[in-house]
Amino acid sequence: MSISSKIKQHLPHDELSMKLWEEDKLKPDVREQLLEISDAFIEYLGISIDVIDVTFTGSYANFNYTPYSDIDLHIIVDPKSINKDVDLVEEFLKAKRQFWNDRHDIRVLNIEVELYAQDVNEEHASSGVYSVKSNEWINKPDKFRGDFDKRNISRKVKYFKKQISMEIEEAKMNKNTAGLERIIKKIRDMRSAGLEKSGEMADENIIYKILRSEGNIQKLYDMKDNIFDVGLSL
């Protein structure tokens, strides 16, 4: 698929996904299934927690969903209610989330559901946040701007793909992750700057999403892990 076609896939829609939404409400069967999934995740945690809310966020709770988007299902908790050592709780929840998402491929209408335990005090940048528990919007999304610098996006995607390939080849030869870490940070900083400046439909965020959807970013992490594993092997 051409970069131009990829860009088109990441442009915003005029309506929320009809797969999941009836006007501005979650379809009843979708909501019921998401609550069932959240209950299974809460039980899997294996500890007693007070769930403040269960929220649905990300691209499918907005107008910028793509064929690569998933359902971001957040379990809102107060870490202090679990243990006074908040850092310990956060590490526990993070490990549990990663293990769950690695082991399970749960889908709603063939859309992957990604689970996340979120601190109630954590700021969340998404402009679309829906309470599955209360069946109402917390942050109702607005439609995005329709003007994008497609030439700039295409040029930057090609640039980063070339840089990624070069750094991976360099890392293979030198068994060193420094270059990989630099390009990962560069891409991350680019995306963060774009989100801060222009929100989710910033050119920089679309560039990041195209690179991610084509597997370029994952290749960087895979090579970094491979070099680390080789370094510890005999």
Describe the overall structure.
This protein has seven helices and eight strands, in the order H-E-E-H-E-E-H-E-E-E-E-H-H-H-H. Helix 4 crosses helix 6 and helix 4 runs parallel beside helix 7. The strands form two sheets. The protein has a six-stranded mixed sheet. Strands 1-2 form a two-stranded antiparallel sheet. The protein is 50% helix and 15% strand. It is α+β, with helices and mostly antiparallel strands and 234 residues long.
Compute the average pLDDT. Answer: 90
Strand content: 15-25%
In which range does the helix fraction lie?
A: 40-55%
DSSP strand tally: 8
* Gyration radius, rounded: 19 Å
Query: Judging from the principal axes of the Cα atoms, what is the shape?
Result: globular
Layout of strands and helices, then pairs:
Blueprint (H helix, E strand, L loop, with lengths): L2 H7 L11 E2 L2 E2 L1 H18 L5 E7 L13 E7 L8 H18 L3 E2 L2 E9 L9 E3 L4 E4 L10 H25 L3 H21 L4 H11 L2 H16 L3
Parallel strand pairs: 4-6
Antiparallel strand pairs: 1-2, 3-4, 3-7, 5-6, 7-8
Helix pairs in contact: 4-5, 4-6, 4-7, 5-6
Give a short overview.
With 234 residues, this protein is α+β, with helices and mostly antiparallel strands. Helices cover 50% and strands 15% of the residues.
